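Field notebook, page 301. I keep forgetting to write these up properly, so this time I am using the form the group agreed on. The chain and the ligand, flavin-adenine dinucleotide, are recorded exactly as supplied. Prediction of the bound pose follows.
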Amino acid sequence: MNRHPSEAHRASRLVSAERAPFQLSFEFFPPKTDVMEERFWDSINKLAPLKPRFVSVTYGAGGSTRERTLRMVSRVKADTGVDAAAHLTCVGATRGEVDEVVTGYRDAGINRIVALRGDPAEGIGKPFTPHPEGYKNAADLVAGIRKLGDFDISVAAYPEKHPQSADWGTDIDNLKRKIDAGADRAITQMFFDNDDYFAFVDRAQAAGITAPIVPGIQPIHSFRQISGFASKCGAHIPDWVAERFAGLEDDPDTHALVAAAVAAEQVLELVDSGVTEFHFYTLNRSNLVLALARLLGVRPD
Ligand code: FAD
């Protein structure tokens, strides 16, 4: 038998009583229509019993979902008892306007923020010009939030480098500035090759970053949709992943099984490498995330 020598020590083979519990968080976006809102609550109600560390709700470009994000995070917390994190960007807003959103979260009892620069209104990849009276970037925003209350702050990290970072040194320095400004952890952009994540963590640690870098996992509910998102945000889909989905456009059952298998392989490999915290991009769906949580031994109470 050609058994991997470390097989007997794989962390993914431990039962939950033998190890510390995994820390999970789930990301949602604020629904736009009644039908989407129904799906949002259906998924929240299925995932909340897994007792995630927090459920986060994104913030639309340029603050377009400001009220909806606040309404959703407040209700998630009130209805499910699960901690909620509100995303926040500083695009196109003065410091005063952003601070008002932060104090609004604080007054609503939301003490977790995912602090982001955001992308320009012209689209991802276009040069970013801060508002003349606004926060300049995410590090500046984190420092501003710290002055307004005792928040738990997450920031973004990019295992394949942010598309606007000229080189790795610039990218990692920027992450370090965000952590030094007071962020508690980084959550990564989606990635599909774990080697990119491992190399990124090594680079960050070599630069003295000790805060957790939580992998952001994007289950591939729809290959067509996710490959579109990935190319927009600078995440690459390896050929071997693309090949697994090739030809499944009209075969949703096999597509769903392959999606579960691909995400399971990614997550369990991370577990075997010592990862204990995960952030799942749910796209307001619960089924694949429920299955992945089960593989991690996380069950509803
Ligand atoms: P920053 O950390 O400020 O960095 C952006 C780029 O600017 C980097 O290349 C950095 O090196 C460079 N830079 C920063 N400061 C300087 C400087 N002083 N001089 C030169 N270059 C500099 N977007 C949304 O609109 N809403 C969301 O809810 C949302 N949620 C997200 C959640 C996660 C987990 C992730 C990973 C991303 C999310 N995004 C969201 C996307 C994010 O807004 C974009 O990726 C955006 O392009 C960068 O945001 P940032 O916070 O990483 O920016």
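OBSERVATIONS:
- The chain has ten helices and eight strands.
- The first strand starts at residue 23 and ends at 28.
FOLLOW-UP: compare against the apo run.
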